[in-house]
Amino acid sequence: MEFEEDGRKMRAGDLKVEREFGEGRVDGSGETALRGGDVRVGAAGEIAGSESDRAAAGISPAPDFRGAADRVSLEEAAGFLLAHCQVIRETETVPLLDCAGRVLAEDVSAGFDNPPFDRSPVDGYAVRSADIAQASQENPAVLQVIGEVDAGGWSDDEVGPGQAMRIMTGAPIPRGADCCVYQEQTDYGEERVQVYKPCGPWKNYCFKGEDIEAGTLVLKEGTALTYVETGILAGLGREKVKVYRRTRVAVFASGDELAEPGTELAPGKIYDNNLYFLAARLRELGVEITALERVPDQPEVMAKRLVSACGQADLIITTGGVSVGKKDIMHEALALCKAQRLFWKIRMKPGMPTIGSVLEGTPVVSLSGNPFGALADCELLVRPMLAKAGHNPALNPGSCTAVMPQGFPKASPSRRFLRGVCENGQVRIPEVKKHASGILSSMSGCNCLVDIPAGTEAVEPGGKVRVILL
Predict the structure, then answer these.
(1) What strands, in cross-sheet order, belong to the sheet with 32-34?
(2) Is the peptide bond between 350 and the residue preceding it cis, with omega within 30 degrees of 0?
(3) How many C-beta atoms surround the C-beta of residue 415 within 10 A?
């Protein structure tokens, strides 16, 4: 079914019902009759019938897809969402110990040499190399010890010919000395020391600015800060760090069947795991969660939650209510708040019935209610958005090629993602019956998604596959 919109030919949303009805039939015309009234699904997937007949068949009102893409590729879906994802410009200053996991919002240059003085890398004696050039076990060089300098100390004395100064690791090297000898190569003398081995000029000698010279650009704006950068900043004397604020995300789960963990499970209910694993994953990725709420299957209530979240969140994620059942409320909720639809359905399994939209400039990603479907879409669609918004390309999923020793026996008419464990160039997957989109337990311990292209027959044992690293 096609229609004209702004001079462009658009295909109506593919509203093909995914489930089978026991009282329906498939005839030679390619149509399927559904129970509950005169409702027919055409060969192209369009649904015909009055709204009352559709309701009797348990089908939500037909979503309006004018201007929206239908059954897009994963890359197209990501592109639509990224085009509406805004880069965060606001910054904040945080204590040094809180900067790991954040993104630097300014260039950082060294205001002084680090270390700020020449220092010894060994415990021993600071000497003049010329005085010990002929030293040996049989004929040691004998030097007068004029003092001692420890780490954190300082000496204004100058080491002259025939002299040495006791020195500890990290201590400033006194004037006149051009090397430091290991104490193990001496007799550990206190007033006079015997040195048994030569040491060349500038040996065991760390120069001022050896780590960082004054004026050097040390860290660039946009650097993802880890414990290493925290140490570098501490070495530069920084007490506070200017970073971009965290990406703010609101998360809503739809479903009257969902129960709060810790409560008694009533008949017909299941505990809500999507809301919690999404929140946990987002926090792992450095997100600030502005709303985390379970919403009843009432489009008006969901619409209000979406509108209220817009002013506080950079991104809104919902899970559940995205298919065509009577309780799949997201189509109507998005319409009620006048969200702009970008796409519905992605040509992939799991996570196919995903909706992408924009509400008052805020991207809304409506994920499947099936746990693994929601998880896959979170990794493949949400992470790139967080990477862009938060100035952190490291949040983009990586990929590699790996060998699948046991293969995968099922054909993949559409693009399929499998959970797996990738190690040492090989990827192993759970048993085949544990790959349903409603199963989350077999994801435990997995570190990747195996990307099986559309049209692939069974993956033979030892076949090579593309792996998305999580």
Answers:
(1) 25-26, 32-34, 39-41, 47-48
(2) yes
(3) 18
Place of tokens 């060089």: 141
Quick: pLDDT tens for 170-193. 999 999 999 999 999 999 999 999
Cβ neighbours for 206, distance < 8 A, ≥ 6 positions apart: 115, 118, 119, 120, 121
Sheet containing strand 163-167, edge to edge, reads 179-182, 124-127, 163-167, 141-149, 192-195
pTM for this one? Answer: 0.80
Q: Is the peptide bond before 115 cis (omega within 30 degrees of 0)?
A: yes
Sequence-separated (6 or more) residues with CB below 8 Å from residue 280: none
- Which secondary structure element, helix H or strand E, spans residue 334, and what is its range? helix 330-336
The pLDDT assigned to 311 comes to: 85
SS3 (DSSP) at 38: coil
Q: Are 321 and 374 in contact (CB under 8 A)?
A: no
126 in Cβ contact with 173 (< 8 Å): yes
Rounded to whole angstroms, the Cα distance separating 363 from 342 reads 10
**Which residue type sits at 274?**
N
Question: Is residue 316 within 8 Å of residue 365, measured between CB atoms?
Answer: yes
Largest CA distance in the chain: 110
Distance CA 117, CA 237 (A): 15
Amino acid at 453: P
DSSP per-residue string spanning 245-302? PPPEEEEEEE-TTEE-TTS---TT-EE--HHHHHHHHHHHTTPEEEEEEEE-S-HHHH
Inform me whether the pLDDT recorded for 93 exceeds 80: yes
- H/E segment holding residue 336: helix 330-336
Distance CA 38, CA 54 (A): 8
Q: DSSP alpha helices (H): ranges in 46-97?
A: 51-56, 74-83
Please name the residues in contact with 397: beta carbons below 8 A apart, sequence gap of 6 or more: 379, 380, 383, 384, 468, 469, 470
Contact 119, 172 (CB under 8 A): yes
Tokens coding 431: 């048993």
